[in-house]
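Researcher: Here's the sequence for the chain we discussed earlier.
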Amino acid sequence: MKRNKASKGYRADYAEQQRRARRWTGSKLERDDDLREKVLGRLEAGWSPEQVAGRLMLDHGRQVISYETIYRFIYAQIRRTKGYDWRRYLPRGKSKRGRYGRCGGSPVTFMKERRPLSERPQAAADRKTPGHWEGDYMLFKQYGHNILVAHERASRLILLAKPRTRRADTTVRALTRLLGPWPEHMRSTITFDNGTEFARHYRLANQLGIQTFFCDPHAPWQKGGVENAIGRLRRYLPRKTDIGQLTAAQLDAIAQRYNNTPRKCLGFKTPAEACLLNPLHFECESTGPISRAWPSHSRGKIGKSRSWVPAFAGMTAKMR
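Model: Thanks. This is the structure I predict for it:
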């Protein structure tokens, strides 16, 4: 009591603060310089804290650090230093934890030949069978700027396209170019939300033989894979990005980086490893480390002939 008393006598809250201050030696990342350098380097490369912790455990055969410790370290730096640049190390770039609610309408009545998600084959739900896709648009602050994202549910692989507009005819043509080169068994189903940009979905069935399904109204979480992918891509393509200045090489690099980042749901393999090496039996040779490309630094224009960039760009792949 003598050791912990304040200038005006003993106070329990002050004594508790003194006790914690004596025992606190800093977080693990503050004590271990080498570990901090490894963790921050991988976070800067686009990995999430959970991916960093999982990959370190896979490489060392034991738990090196938990993802919660990494999150707490980043948020502690934000609170102590008021340096909000620390949030750039996190996938969503948020300075506080939590979710933001949204609301809006659903133009279900405009969908010709619409099939609800309840009719989708069970094989698409368990994520064990390849060939089931989800599609959505990634929107930006400037009107008319958008990127089409196709997400394969089993491998978590993404394909990116940059159509000129978000009209239904343009969208279905872009999806046909993205999915057309794939084998038939890799084009089983695709799931959309109820946006009118997917109103010509039935053309995909006619041209590619792929079945199309739609989420329930106000339930975009039912295609959570592509929603999650778009959230991760926001790290490289924030909402304020002027994609008119986004070059084909930069879009290619972003797709490569995503598809070569390990995922916990894949046993910390990468989507490229899970998709190319297993269901498609590709022989792949990586071209090397992916260079960091930030769209805001670009001054080039993307050509019409490169309006879509497959996820395999930058890799040498051939069928066995």
